[in-house]
Specification:
Length: 101
């Protein structure tokens, strides 16, 4: 066993992070399912899947709510949310490969 592996505090933290990662993936899956419902509506009406204005509003709101009260910075909130939006859009496009928007 390595020195690192023998450190119980580090192991406890890693276990907790693993649990949080699982929770995050479950939440992201729920989020994606709802985004796909929105994509289905937009697909029917011919609307563009991506809405930069809505994305900007969401980021601004989350930065306002959390940037000063948590260890997350304004920039990290922006990066995390932009990655979520990009990945959501990629999944939406995979479900609706015929869409040009
Ligand atoms: C979810 C929507 O569609 C797209 C996906 C978004 C998201 O993943 O949060 C936000 C805006 C749009 O780019 C929406 O229009 O509300």
């Amino acid at each position: 066993m390595s020195r690192e592996e023998m450190n119980p505090e580090l192991q406890r933290c890693r276990n907790r992070i693993r649990e949080i990662d699982n929770e995050l993936l479950i939440l992201l899956n729920s989020r994606t399912k709802i985004a796909l419902e929105i994509a289905s509506i937009k697909h029917e009406t011919g609307e563009c899947f991506r809405n930069r204005e809505v994305e900007r509003e969401k980021i601004n709101y989350l930065q306002h709510q959390y940037a000063d009260e948590t260890s997350l910075t304004r920039q990290s909130i922006e990066n995390i949310m932009q990655t979520i939006f990009d990945e959501t859009l990629a999944i939406e496009k995979k479900h609706y490969p015929d869409t040009t928007k």
